[in-house]
Fold:
Amino acid sequence: MSRLSTHQSVILVVLLALLASGPAQGITRLSFTRPGGMMRIPMSATVRSPYLFTAGFVSEVVNISPINSATGVYFDTELTRNLRMGLSSVSIADPSADLDSSTFKSPLEIGIHLQQRLWVYGDVSFSLGIQDVVLTQSDEGFSIDPDLISYLGVISSDQVVGKYLLSTYMGFGTGTLAGSLPVDTTASLPDSSRIKVGVFTGFRLKTPIFAQRGGLDIMAEWDGSGVNIGLRIPITPDYRLQIGVVNIDKLGQFGLQSDKQLLTPDAPAVVMALNLSIPRIVAGRAPHALEALGPRPTTPAIAEESLLAAQLDSTLKDADFVLASLRDSLRIADFEIDNLHGQLALRNQSGVVLADSVRSMQLSIEMIKSNMNVTMRHLSAALQHYYKENYRDALQEVEMAIQLNPDLAIAYARRGAIYYKLGDTQRATINWNMALKLDPEYDDIRNALRALKENRLKTASFIQE
Structure:
């Protein structure tokens, strides 16, 4: 049995066991606790997430005075390339009309969310899943409410607009994705008031603001019952602050519990969350070498890793080729010197002239050899500074190498990579063009310039390494 089939079998057994536990009341519609990057709707993606897992804490404030909020923690990971799992633990808000005298204690709720990517074509993907399998603790033990379970399908589309990435999500679902369900665990609504199947849609705009930390995201969505908007603000490449407003179309009703009114399922709320993302680490690469992290890349993350390794290998091979060429040149020169010495023995009259010629040639060869050795030492030192992120020192070493040998393509290529790391794209482009002019067969540089022109070097680029 394949690995994917094994996971699916285990998941099926777990779900059957849960469904056999019997009904209970609960709610898990807490923003950011479902897998993915949106607030309350599912999402799909064309490539595997660049993160090993994400986790975070979220709070939805529905009333200020007295304070009333729902809180939760969540965990999200990809078990395989296409199977995604999320876990969440939620403490719901107090639904009472009189918060000052309320004795409500929120039950422990654990949510299980699974999603399978089935189809990818270009920038479009389609996923099916089951979400909001909520285990609620009661005196009889853990049980679930089948009405909360959401069977869903979602399609996504990613479009690059200048320096922005616009992602669109549309789908349908049952259970909590089909519209509002009661928040009050003691209340009940007639069956006619429950929407069994509903649709949802959402948009996420990734901006170049704070690009070095992953970029600022703007989100807007319709979750089947209201409009939600939010921001994802990168604090570091790994930590993000997420804020938003739920049911912003009903914002005028915010805080009505202060007027002794029951909390309604579609009540507006202010959301605050802290998200931690752990990137996948490739051998030989530091975690923070990943730039512009986040669900979104225009090229697959694994393909970028392969291109990066290929670029490093190509640089070393080019250096070996240059050294091998110099060694061949020295062997040819030595052979010519031996021939000249033989001619000097036969031609006594022209011996002095030929001897001078030989000495001049030997001096030139030694100068070339010495010059190239010094040049390669500077390039090697530049590479060491580069890996230590001492870009200014690396740039100084490359400058000295170019002064010694202004016709070496690899020196200009490396200087372009350093300027790119320093954020000077214009100088990086100039140096890569100079390297390509000196060596028209330098395919790695040609590919880098094409990727830069197509705006595919915003995240991790093999030219930088």
In short: The chain has two domains: 3-296, 304-453. Residues 9-27, 180-194, 283-299, 458-465 have pLDDT under 50 and may be disordered. DSSP finds seven helices and 13 strands in the chain.
